[in-house]
Amino acid sequence: MELDALPDHLLILGGGYIGLEFGQLFRRLGSRVTIVQSAGQLLAGEDPDIAEEITKILQQDEVEVLLNSKATHAEKSGDRIRLSVQSENDSTSLVGSHLLVATGRVPNSDSLNLAATKIQSDGRGFIQVNDRLETTAEGIYALGDIKGGPAFTHISYDDFRIIRANLLEKKAASTKGRQVPYTLFIDPQLGRVGLTEMEARAQGRNIRVAKLPMTHVARALEVDETRGFMKAIVDADTNQILGAAILGIEGGEIMSALEIAMMGKLPYSALRDGTFAHPTLAESLNNLFMAMDSGS
């Protein structure tokens, strides 16, 4: 962020990926940190149990988290910033040295003179594309953050792969059905892929939920980082893994192993019964799915 001084008190608007990563970072550097989140939980798209555990982890780091709180006004007061915040029952005024606005991003499409083309954008300025990344103007494609959707580097790279395959290799690549994994780089990490439990239930799916605290993971015990838990969503009819959330040490790496199983359409039992080297984090996949089968 090119700061020449450590913030004394960093105020953060938004409890999403950027707000949480920077919030924990600056707290560990020594700043006092307050996160103001308008929703009732951090990471509004995640399952409540995941969000609650992340809140606990941040609070252990002495990050102040204000939920159901909306910033109504911000102003400079001398060398400080005064932020007015309205919560469910009262209003308060926060005073900090720096303000980080992490409430989302807008595209730079206003500089592209889209009016001179047949390219259509939505109300926020994101360029509209189909599953082949074709815009509404023939012969023009869009990839990356400019088209909206998950703003991740790996998604932008996959967009490039799709366009390269279609234009140069004359294939029929598409974004349909692609997984959107991500890792939240707090400590410990959150690795996420596929459906959340909320999404699966909203779709009316018949599911089973596998859940294992990191206190039951041998490798986590060995390195003394046992915060968080592992969670996987399984289709009860097909035994296919529908999604996973791994909140724990190297959560992104464990999530990736589950994503590979999902890509290969392996039933969860293949991981439950697999032989993994000890002591690795991968062997925790045995226990995760055994815990589900045992009902514990």
Question: What does the secondary structure layout of this molecule look like, with pairings?
Answer:
Elements: E1 9-13, H1 17-29, E2 32-36, H2 48-60, E3 64-66, E4 70-77, E5 80-86, E6 91-96, E7 98-101, H3 153-167, E8 182-184, E9 189-194, H4 197-202, E10 207-213, H5 218-222, E11 229-235, E12 241-248, H6 251-263, H7 268-272, H8 284-294
Parallel strand pairs: 1-2, 1-7, 2-3
Antiparallel strand pairs: 4-5, 5-6, 8-9, 9-12, 10-11, 11-12
Please provide a written account of the structure.
The chain is of the alpha/beta class. It starts with 8 loop residues before the first strand and ends with a helix. β5 (about 80-85) and β6 form a beta hairpin. The mean pLDDT is about 95. The strands form 3 sheets. The chain has a 5-stranded antiparallel sheet, with helices on both faces. A 4-stranded parallel sheet has the order 3-2-1-7. Strands 4-5-6 form a 3-stranded antiparallel sheet, with no helix packed on it. The chain has 3 domains: about 10-100, FAD/NAD(P)-binding domain (3-Layer(bba) Sandwich); about 110-165, FAD/NAD(P)-binding domain, CATH 3.50.50; about 180-295, Enolase-like, domain 1, CATH 3.30.390.30. It contains 8 helices and 12 strands. It has helices at about 15-30, 50-60, 155-165, 195-200, 220, 250-265, 270, 285-295; strands at about 10-15, 30-35, 65, 70-75, 80-85, 90-95, 100, 180-185, 190-195, 205-215, 230-235, 240-250.
